[in-house]
Structures are given as C-alpha cells and as structure tokens.
C-alpha cells in the first residue's frame, strides 16, 4: 500500500466512525479541526475519502485547517481555537499537535492517523486502551530505530561512525533517539572489545 492509501484508510476510518457515532442527521453541518505542520498532498486522500462517505466540504462539513510550520508552540493556540470553535472532531498529524489538543480538551474526539510512539510520548495511556478522548494508529519507531542501526552494522561490518538526524522538537522522536544511542553504545563496546 502506498502512503497516501494508508493515510486515507486510517484517517477516514478513525474520523468517520466518531462522526457516525454522533448520529446521522442529514441536516447537520459537521466541523472538523485539522492540525498539521503544513499541507502535504497525501492528506488529500483523507478528504477525498470523507467525500466518498458523504461528508462534503462546504455542504455538510467545515474543515478548520491550521498549519504551524516550524512553530510547534502554535499548536497550543490552535488547540484552544478548536475548543472555542466547538468542532465535532479534531484530526492531528503530529505528536506536538496531539499533546496540545490533549491539554486543551477532554471531551472533543481527537484522532491521529499514525502517531509515533503514542504511549511513550504521553498521547495515549496504552495501545489497547488509549483512554480519554484521543485515539488513532501507531508507528513504533523506537524499536525500529535501533534495528536500523543494527542492520547497518551487519551490512557494513567495518562501520565505526554514523550520524543520525532527528527532530528534537518532536517529543515522539526522543525515545527513538534514546534507543539509537543505546544500540550505538552496544556497538561501540563490542567493537572496542574485539
């Protein structure tokens, strides 16, 4: 499956179910908050899928889109705005946005299509029982980060140095960074002992 199809599948299911649970009133105009760093074309699949399910922007759906760019502190402002607008559901596509919305409301349903380490970053209580008003899909990148370094070491046995680029502003990536550091130390200890 392509990334676009996955976002559409996860996002549409996660959004359409709460809207359906609120009741099917054909006269109702739904309001959705959508918080992201910026527009990316693969989000379009989500909105196209909602349209296919009968949620048509400008007809029975208003989407309040807010993009923070590199200013993640704006997510707190946007979350408070979504609460004031009394949206029916909030879709967040970054961990900082999910944490901001979680701080702002305990009643409006919040859906993340694919959060990075949502338990470790504090977005949800557990994968099996997220608790509260926040739910969605998960990408467990911490274990994969260490595994990627392990695989790189197997592919390049003489490897003695590597660099890792990560976004320190995203709390979800902190655990992945820590796991990578732990794996790197194990590798360094094994290499020096040989």
Summarize the structure.
The chain has 194 residues and is an alpha/beta fold. It has helices spanning 3-21, 44-52, 74-85, 95-104, 141-155, 172-192, and strands at residues 30-36, 61-67, 89-92, 110-116, 134-139.
Could you walk me through the main structural features you see in this protein, from its secondary elements to its overall organization?
There is one protein chain. With 194 residues, the chain is an alpha/beta fold. It contains 6 helices and 5 strands, in the order H-E-H-E-H-E-H-E-E-H-H. Strands 2-1-3-4-5 form a 5-stranded parallel sheet, sandwiched between helices. Strand 3 (89-92), helix 4 and strand 4 (110-116) form a beta-alpha-beta unit. Helix 1 crosses helix 2 (44-52), helix 3 packs across helix 4 and helix 5 (141-155) packs parallel to helix 6. The longest helix has 21 residues, at 172-192. The protein is elongated.
